[in-house]
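#structure-requests
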Amino acid sequence: MFVARYIGIFKDSLFTSIFGATYLADTFMVAYKFPQLLRVFFADWTVYGTLVPSLSAEHEKSPTKARNMLNGYFSFMLVLISGLVILGELFCPYIIPLIAPGFIGDPIRSNLLNDLFRVLLPIILFMSLGTILISLQNVLQRFWIQPTYRCMQDFVMIGVMLIGVRFLPNYKLIHWLAWGTMLAGILQLTSVGYMCYRNHYPIYLTRKFWTEKTKALVKQMSKTAFASLSLYLLTFITVAFASLLAPGQITYLLCVDRIILIAVDAFGGAITTILLTYVGKYLDNNKKLTLLLEDIVLVSVQMSLIVAVLVFLTAPHIVKLLYGYGRFNSTDCLYTAEILRISVWGMPAFALTRMLSLYTIAIGRAKISYVASIVSVSVSLLANFWFIQEGFGCVGVALAAVIALWSGIVCYIPLLYRVRWQFGVITMLWNGIHGLIGYLLWHYTPINIALGTTLVSYFILGKYLHILRIGQERVLGR
């Protein structure tokens, strides 16, 4: 996870250095984010939360039945998403005003968005099918394949930019980058399909895919999608409101979003990927489920909160280090750092929401996540509208997302009150002390970056792995 996110950061840094905070960057990011929004229904944690527990339980009983269930679900998703992609291509002119209303009066940006949208939309097909196959790899305990799968697209995009910047003007390079991204999706799907074949799970299409197993998975997928909708829809709302502002604001927000996702995936996604496979095994054991919930919540809060403090203190340095190159000038870095210092306080809420929504689905308490999603989206719309009207600009858009995330967490109180918070308070304080020492060394010594980064990484990562090991021992009874 860490390596995959760092490669993604390098890709984004290269992207901003070439295109800067311009209409080209804004338009590409909007076109690229729409398939990301659809991931809530057909890919990513929706499929992981649906398929991993069911496939894990089926694999324990009979690999042959698990193979049939996987291929039936794969065939159904291929037919469904292919049809949706075709509809999206046909109705593209009606979708664009919804995802970027600020582009309507600008023919240059709207025409470019139309072109890039049509090229990038099929990515959702490769994302969805690839996520299904990655779920199988997680069930087989091959967790390294998931971050490797993610890196493929970043490597292709980096290669296109490094080569294209030498020979093409930016307005042509942005089209080549879109085509490269789409072709990278084909490469990802082909590679993970080969891995499934190597693991004796060959993928084939079947006509009789609408079985009872597939129906149950689709029903569960719909629940999971709605429960996780707020996380993806908040980004969609953020981009839509940012499109009403001056060019470059979308780029600032999405650069910050990338930094936030590093911590969320590292201290939220990694835990969920590992521990989610155990939820299906302990559905009849309330004690084990409670211990599992406690470990997930405490580790996520501890790590994400410490990282949030460190990112807040070092925001200008982080932004300059990651994005302060080429056409992304010092003014762009200043605005991005200001937005980062606000957005970072939504990080613990983001990580908690991501995990708790999947957990509630797995244990049959989906209503909690549904209410949380409705609350978060409603608060986001109201807060964004008010901040834009009051002239807060991009900072207001970022603040609205933070408020919306924490408002959704309130809905999870029936679960959170069961967590023994004293179990993690001492560790949280201990991590805080070491993080503060690392920051002081980073800020005030000549060898600041090397020593400070080493200390912070050592103590945070070491304590994270220690807590996770203790949690696995408690849950698994080792």
